[in-house]
Amino acid sequence: MQREEIWTEKYRPRKLEEVAGQNAIINNLTSYVRKRNLPHLIFSGPAGVGKTAAAVAMARELYGDTWSENFTELNASDERGIDVVRNKIKNFARTMPIGNASFKIIFLDEADALTDAAQSALRRTMERYSGTCRFVLSCNYSAKIIGPIQSRCSVYRFKSLSYDAIASRVKYISEKEGLKLSEEAIKAINYVSLGDMRRAVNALQSAAVLGSEVKPERIYETTATARPEEIQELIKRALDGKFFDALDKLEDLEDKGISGDEILAQMHRLVINMDIPAREKVELMDRIGEADYRITEGANEKIQLDALIASFCLSSGATI
């Protein structure tokens, strides 16, 4: 079994039907491939949900063996000024397609990082070379793409991947790599991935390096993520007014190398689903948000987390 290969590349979808969890969008893209034509496109959504994979798979099915000559990928966050539009993009767009293709495809990843001036120049390029080139813009937030470009494109909004989508893919990879993967391990991968397939596959590979049997505890260890039960226990101790017990639990998590940002993010995920009165939930969420803001602004992480636990204890009304 080859461990040196990055699995996110090794198991990147080669066909549109292999892109997981985006069935409605994939059906539309497949229709474009059958008709051998497509409009300019915007793929919007969070990271790791199949935007780039869908664009590359679509190009492979459209062009066959000549796909790499008729498809180019640029990362707009690396070169985000007007010069990249005037030079690289324009030069590729003005050349004729190779083989039997009637148009080429330019894929702009992280297009929401382009400056307004670059986007205005891109709009003119899209107009001028629409006969020989199609643009696929990938972004996290379509609202950051200027209106004139949005009006020229079909916008597809990719969603975070479901448990079933992630489970089916990691099971497939596990079978190919000869791994033993329990249902609990799949749940752990889904928990740490947050709907991001890249993160899920990386978590699986990191755990697989330690042995062919992938266990939930390995998933949490290799991704520096606390088990949900540990965060629940931390919150429970604080809400029960057990301040020093809660601090001990918090220190255990910090000793495992789990960052304050990750602890806060996991607390947020759990508190929002807790079975407690709505008003109490609102107060706890407000305190988590305040701690996150202060840490982001440069406050001491340890002090802010301890203060958060203290505020949980006080809000519980328990005798400390």
Describe the model.
The protein has 320 residues and is an alpha/beta fold. It has three domains: 22-157, P-loop containing nucleotide triphosphate hydrolases (Rossmann fold), CATH 3.40.50; 163-222, Helicase, Ruva Protein, domain 3 (Orthogonal Bundle); 228-316, Zinc Finger, Delta Prime, domain 3 (Up-down Bundle), CATH 1.20.272. Helices cover 57% and strands 10% of the residues. The chain is built from 16 helices and seven strands. It has helices at residues 7-10, 23-35, 51-63, 67-70, 82-94, 116-128, 147-150, 163-177, 183-193, 197-208, 216-222, 228-239, 243-255, 260-271, 278-296, 301-316; strands spanning 40-44, 71-75, 104-109, 133-139, 153-157, 180-181, 213-214. The protein has a five-stranded parallel β-sheet with strand order 2-3-4-1-5. Strands 6-7 form a two-stranded parallel sheet. Helix 5 (82-94) links the parallel strand 2 (71-75) and strand 3 (104-109). Helix 8 (163-177) runs parallel beside helix 10 and helix 15 packs antiparallel against helix 16 (301-316). The radius of gyration is 24 Å and the shape is globular. It starts with 6 loop residues before the first helix and ends with a helix. The mean pLDDT is 88.
